[in-house]
Fold these 2 entries.
Entry 1:
Amino acid sequence: MYKGYSGKILRINLSNLQTQINATSPDLARRFIGGTGLAGYLLYQEIPQGIDPLGPSNKLFFCTGPATGTIWPTAGRMAVVSKSPLTGIWAESHVGGHLGPEMKYAGYDFIIIEGQAEKPTVLSVVDQNVEFHSGKPYWGQNTLRASKEIRKELEQQHGHVAVIGPAGENLVKFSAIMVDGARAAGRTGLGAVMGSKNLKAILVRGTGSVDVADPQQFKSFWEEGHQRVQENPQALEMRKYGTAILVATKQNIGELPTYNHREGVYEGWDRISAETFHDYYYHTSRACGTCRLACKKAFKVDEGPYKGLITEGPEYEGIMAMGSNVGIDDIPTILQAQHLCNEYGLDVISAGCTAAFLMELVEHDLLSEDELEELDLQWGNNNGLIQLMHAIAQRNGLGDMAAEGSHRIARQIGSEAEPYDMTVKGMEISGQDGRAHRSMALGHAVAARGADHLRNLVTMDQLAYKDVAAERFGEDKLPDICDPYVETYKALATVVTEKVYTIRDSLIVCWYTCSWPPIFWIEDFAQLLTSVTGESAFGSVEELMQIGARLVTLKRCFNVREGLTRKDDRLPRRFTHEPFPSGPSKGQTVNLEPMLDEYYSLYGWDLTTGVPTKETLDSLGLKEIAKDLSTRGLLPS
Amino acid sequence: MRVAVIPSRCTGCRVCELVCSEVHEGTFQPSKARIQVLSFDETVQDVPVVCQQCVDAPCLEACPQEAISRDIKTNAVVVDQELCIQCGTCVSVCVIGLDAVDPQQKLAIRLDEKSQMLLKCDLCDGDPQCVKFCPTEALIFTKKPVEGEFSVEEMMEALEYFLQQKELSLPGQEGK
């Protein structure tokens, strides 16, 4: 097996309490690298079409890549891959902290959870020893407490824990898996998959090593990498403020989701800006493994109803979801809402955006007094938001309906609610708006897990990186490629970016330092991969981009098999038909269809259906996938 | 000289552990790092623990083989692995983690079970790499006391809290 990998995949079946260790296949590593790439192939092969995401046939892949556990900056991350209970399609969610590296030190590239336990269970993986423990003492506990008690009870204080809270236990469709306290594999409802398997937590402790192919070459490369991050001015800004600096950035271009995306500017933005958080509430900074950015900011509340609260986060996304998008400008409320999401194990984006959706329904009298019970969900109601978070996690009253996510609620209420359903493929939209960030309009529409900003978000137009854009896409694409309000070149930028990011997600390294600030790009990943794995083919940028196309197309095929086509690559009507009423992006809407045509063409997918053609699949080395889809009659003729 | 630890600057990134293992073991293996980071999730704080090269070092004095000595150039208390018989006396007398039931849970000096090697900070021959690569200057190579640094007693307390999984609460950071 190549270096960099641990070389083993651990399978744990909760139905029969059996464990199995397989070798990681060098052939598959060469084709799909690792992380969500390799997981994509295995998920396609092992999860039958049409299964219930919350049934025993679904599997949960805890994934690392060849860079995980090395000292390369931001190599502390990992991904969880499965079939989503929120959307019924491809699910992936990435998480920082230290669990990914710990898996590698324990000797595993992947840990795959199969089946369904009869009773609440806690798993411990300490090097080669896998043990099943009763999860009963911890069932119902919040995530921080459960992690601590499990580490103490198992006498594995140095272990790292992935855990679900009450939300995952109660199968909330957007529940999260929490790692090392406040790091979340938040999106796509993976906490519910873990909950459906009666798995409260996995503790991993590893004392082994990660070895690289060329230690000398790698050393000079990682030293330079750390230096490049250390000297980057935007990285320094992020180290001080975290991602909250985006609040001002978005406000300035009219892309700060406000009142359920009705507006792109928020009158209270400066009361929830990075400076306000930092100057009045800053407590400490935290980094995931090997990261110099330390973008995770902890805050402390010294007065008011949440006096004494210390909590990690929120990121920009949490500030948007629990702030501008619900019309709340009170930082302690935003912190408490974020804290409840961490403690209950909820995806902060879907939870906040579902709250915004419900608030708009209330505004339009689409929820009855009976349904609302005691909840006051007027825009900007601090207490209403907090009560709703409790209700969702416990599935109390309206929370039981809200726990199903915006899209299911909209379908239940009917056509009157549809205009306010801000989801794509059933997942709530992250804190961007395609009307003020045209590449993101396409990105949200096509991403494999639904409204996703992390798999293909182009920062060239949003943050106007003109020099970087010229370098990556050519001088001739300026100024249009950096203009956030036009569609021109956005499909090209999205496709190139998406291929690079999918390589990033198979390594696995962080969004930050690759996407924003733009420090590392595909050339760096080529060098990283060759020095770590020893496979010289990875040193070719062309080859890596081809693998990138393979991995994006593979995830697409997983969704195609579940019945998705071009008709599912759509945006909420608000983005395409409702011009922004005010701000720098006033009057803007998205013209999606031409971008979709160009996007499919660039990948070699069929324009009518959005399904990859047989020729494309064959040329990408996905013959077995082509054969499977062809047998099912799903390939375009 | 010694590696002074300023926990209020630490972000818990563990670059120190990785570079330490790379330098001493030629691989990425934090379990063998001579410096270990303790994380406290509820108060969101991290405390690196590393040998403070005590003036009257109990490990040095207790070693029956005289395998532990002071490097005159760097002031590091260093182990001669050739002379060491892995008796564990030094581990048992180290004050950091004095109350730890399991000697494996001691951090500043400990015996690696697999290799039967004593793991202890040797100050990298006068150029400690953890200090060099720490992103936030939470580790300082110094002879003099440093503001905000943890004493041996405070490290002892942090380790005790960590083993009990109790929350250690330190003042917040400056935020730079």
Note: The domain at 247-421 of chain A is CATH 1.10.569.10 (Aldehyde Ferredoxin Oxidoreductase Protein, subunit A; domain 2).
Entry 2:
Amino acid sequence: MDIEAALEEIGSAPNLERLQSLKVQYLGKNGRVTQAMKTLGQLPPEERKEKGRVLNEWKRALEEALAVREAQLKEQALQARLEQEALDVSLPGYAFPSGGLHITSLILLELVNIFRRMGFSVVEGPEVESEFFNFDALNMPEWHPARDMQDTFWVDFDRAAEEAFTIQGPFGEEVNGLGGAVLRTHTSGMQIRYMIQHTPPFRIVVPGRVFRYEQTDASHEAMFHQLEGLVVGPSITMADLKGAISELARGLFGKEGKARFQPTFFPFVEPGVQFAMWWPERQKWLELGGAGMVHPYLFKAVDDYRERQGLPRAYQGMTGWAFGMGVERLALLRYGIPDIRYFYQNRLSFLRQFRG
Amino acid sequence: MKIVYSWLKEFLPDAPSSERLEELLAGLGLETESITRLAPPPSGVVFGRVLQVEPLEGKEVRRLVVDIGQEVQVISGAPNAKAGMGVALALPGTLLPDGSELRVRTIAGLESYGMALSPKELGVGDYAGGLLEFAPEALPPGTPLAEAWGPDEVIEVEITPNRPDWLSVYGVARDLAALGLSLVRPSPKPQTTPLPLPFGVWIEDPEGCDRFTLSYARGVRVGPSPLWVQRRLYAAGMRPISNVVDATNYAMLELGNPMHAYDAAFIREGLVVRRAQKGEKLVTLDGQERTLDERDLLIAVKDGPQTRPAGLAGVMGGLEDEIRETTSAVALEVAHFDPVRVRRTARRLGLKTEASYRFERGVDKDGQLLAADRFMELLQAWGGPGVQVAQDRLDLNHTRPHPPIAFRPAYTSRLVGLEYPEATQAEVLRRLGCTVEPTDQAGVWAVTPPSHRVDLNIEEDLVEEVARVVGYEQIPTTLPSFFPHPDNLGVEAPYEANERLKQVMAGLGFQEVLNYSWSSPEECALMRAPAPTVFMQNPQTPERTALRTALYPGLLRNLQTALAQGEEGPFLLFEVGKVFRQVESLHLAALLCGDPVPGLWQKGLGGGFFALKGLLEAAARNLGSRVRVEKETVPYLHPGISGAVWWNEQKVGQIGALHPAIAALLELPQVFLFELTLPLSKGSGGFVDIARYPASMRDLAVVVPDATPYAEVERLIRAGAGEHLEKLELFDVYRGKPLEQGQKSLAFHLTFRHPERTLTDPETDGFMQNIIAALEQKGFAIRR
């Protein structure tokens, strides 16, 4: 047996199968080295010893060569597999859909979260509202010029119909009889509803859709969103209002944000405030909404309603503040959107730009 | 309201620049909409006196001879051109406000040397129906008009409805004076003559009218007002008519009290203030015949036992008694009417006038005589040399003085959150015209507001006055600190659950849209949605006559638009919004069109009904809830691909493929939809300890008729398996050989696990036996 040739053959075995058969050929049960070992017993002791030594050496050399070659071949196979499995990772991935919230929802979420950090609860009210909650209880009686400030969509129900629509009051009671019905012109009606249902102190914000009978153009929409805030307690001040609006400004615009108040009129607050927020990035004031101290008329209207429902009066001696702001307006200013009508045309090329 | 700067300055000699005024006004609560600089008329526009007006035969235009220091020929079509009037004449070469240069033109075969201008052509007003008309002696002929009409400014401010006292030049000046500017108070002093008053006044409806004054002047020559007056009226947005009418408007704009001048020759025995009779008619100044009802308040002329309507109180006068060129005696009404009645009438007739606008907000009940004096003073100045003003006048006054307001200065500090010294508060209130008196009670003042402040009625109103005049910028910033009433704590807010649902939908790849709340019966019918129950009384468009009863129609319209605009698919849209049926309720609707994971250079997911259902199931898992679908026919869905959605074993809505008939109408490809009613119940979400013992797996294939729903097979398996079936996975649905026609094979992986020990093979085999028995009992074969 030519050990050199055998080692050479093992060293150049082209694959693991061939290597395996070489292993069998030399070291298998009937392999040449194994066979030669078996014949050792027939040899004379002297020769046997010498031949045994040589055979053992061969065996070890072969085993080593086999192991080395096996490792080499495995490595080669791994390399081949890695090469074969390689991908062009620069190819695009599966086109999983990427969804998102509407820009209005995103802004509302941001606003609501700022108030949550200040301990406010979030509540919602109905979009179809009775004249009582939308106007009368807010110190806007019929024939009051303040009603001119809000052009209104009035609605009818087919009251005779079996499945007629009903407006529900704060306790689920039917309130269709409380004057006419409107698409709410502001979220302020929820001030009344919430106060009737709850005992102060509390802090709430009310996001929601509102409607105005307006001809639409780049800056007017017949439907838009407001965020209303209401705080009532035994010693709530205008300074608290300014603090909360300042905190809102900081929440929106960073540490440099601040609030500015100017007097104005809303029938449901006294004193009344128009507020602006300082936008440090653009170095300008943004007029964003109205606010003020809850008008005592509202507390009285609420307590009267509570009394009719068999609840104790809860608002005597209380003070409070409320604010309302336009959500789209903030978005328009912040993103520099040229036309408010983009919001509810729902063009995907518009909506898909706002993520977060 | 438009405030002419030079006019305001008559009352505030120290008034700062208009820019600074804007800041001061904002601090007082008066928002400036615009500041407009009034340029003088272009050079080349001169004052001219019309000497002659000759008709040209067969032509609409006429030949005017105008004196501009020399006589020139002007051809004009203006209907009001008459000899003796003063006009604004633009000479050839003049650059008109519209940018064009005027040239000598040939009109009707004659050369026109210049153009006599209308207010619109000169850019001072909107009126284009006739020439600007001036008094013949207003200026020497040929004088450039710019000499009389120098530069000025107009500050347009937005008046909030609570502050009618701001609806005059003096009113705005008066409020600014509270900041410390010195104020010139109006003190008109007409020369009066003792004259008998030729009329009386009777108030038959004192609720509608609590004050009525009637003054008298005679010897008036009606003609155009002075040039500067016309300028101011135009700048304030009114059109000069004649010296008498202009004086009423001028005095109203200046002092805030609307007034009406009658030709005294027409008012017979005098005026009666009464309710109209139903159906009574009146032709108002604008030439319209108005039909009245019992709630309208009327000024009527008393003529023996009869009365004849002469004007709608506080809204508009009648045509019959208006001031004409021939008027020589004038009766002037300055009154106070019930704001609600005026508003109601103005509203009902769609007639908003300068007078009604002021009356419905509330005018000064004590300003009538001052305003009448101002009118008479102006009339004497503008109405010719012979004007005699009667010393006496009628004043029927049933007004009640404003009761004092109990005011606690400490309350100002408490409500605002800033300490205001008592002296400051008293000073501010006095500067605003209030009287401030102590009362028997310590810390309580009796504050009586001035008659022009109809908005000051309660203590909080006075708090605002103090805070406003001291300045809102002084208010500090604090935060409301209190512990909420215990009843308001620990209350679950549905808003948060819906917020989370929206986030989950967005996370799964859906784009949120927000559609209008409006719909129409036609749209609902087309979309096979429930018929509307809420209808608009004043719909804006035919598509917005009612409120929506479902959300999916809006999503389908969004898809239509997206496809028409070539937007990139696939389309996964959702909306959370209110729908209106018997009550208002919140819905979630979602739409899928196309493959949510489309194949591009590699194979896609495929899409279809199970893609949308899979997304709904993923949403449910995300929210710790279970969802299943049971076959149900839904009007707007494909009858073979539609079902009811059960969320945690509560039926909440529908899912399926859009009905092909609707898809065809809308020209849409295949669309899958679901719509659910919110709020969705919360998942149980309990904790089960992590499995410690190995699971035991089996496979099972059942052959069932094609029509058998999967859900039925699943129910049988679950019922048979008992409590240790941990997971049931459908891995194959097979039709074809060797199965018979109309059969399908459903193949499942089943995972069993016991929480406390390892299941033995015989145990698991036992479960399988039970399952197989349950299936076989229903006649289903097991494939082995």
Note: DSSP finds 19 helices and 40 strands in chain B.
